[in-house]
Amino acid sequence: MKKILLATFNPGKIKEYRLLLRSLPLKILGLKDLGIKEKIKEKGDSFLENAFLKADFYSKLTNLPTLADDSGLEIDSLNRMPGVRSRRWPGYEATDRELLDFTLNKLKDFPWNERGAKLKTALVFIIPYRKTRAIFISEGYLEGIIDTKPKGKLVAGYPYRPIFYLPKLKKTLAQLTFRKEIEVGQRRKALKKLIPVLKLLPKINFNFSLSSLGPFEKRVLEEVKKIPMGKTKTYSQIARAVSRPNSARAVGLVLSKNPLPLIIPCHRVVGKQDIGGYVFGRKTKRYLLKLEKEANDKISQLQNRYLKRCFSAKN
Questions:
Q1: CATH says 2-202 is which class?
Q2: Measured distance CA(284)–CA(287) in Å, rounded
């Protein structure tokens, strides 16, 4: 069973992700499970940047596929505050009860129709592989209304649940069962986008070695490594480059032994019709290509040196 690291110390969050990923043959480990005590400062200006900082740090520390998220509350009438400062909104690291009371006090004079809010989650999943790695990102949100008083149990690590009201269900998140909350929550929406990638993990051979390959296989993979970042080549082009112009199918079979080159942006090979050729179904191939493009586009927009660095083959 493949192991993935969930970059959190929060036992509630670990429980939530284990439930969300229960159908996949993956072992979800938290930071405490590995005896990790190091913490990083969440200095980003967005949920996505903070999620990347965590995934980046802990994937390098453990060399494990790492999933990190950053979540928070955005209130429409308060210019989307508290946002990334959801835990430190009062100006210090507040307790759950302090955050709940602080939020209610901020909105005490606001009418019901001006109490709209969103719970947002950004996910970053990094697959480290020697001197390069694949990165995927996703975001999800849940719309609701900030209630005028708490309803339901206050659970450690989730300060806003008792006041986050869902009009369609006529309950706050804290009034729902754990499974129902997971079903409607923003983490499930964000994670759904990454499920095709997570399904690939059991197929990836992390101990893959060129020394175990024959001459043709070595030449194919060496040619794949030469593909510039962000560029693509077809199986036929690879076959011609290794002086076997009629061996496009053989190239696909070589790469099918280890699908990781197909999901690393700087080592991508494209078949005649769509990405991958002989490894995944067509829908999955198109989906992965779309997902990687979204990650590239988003990271380019952010213009953040930490985020941009993850696409460097030299990293």
A1: alpha beta
A2: 5
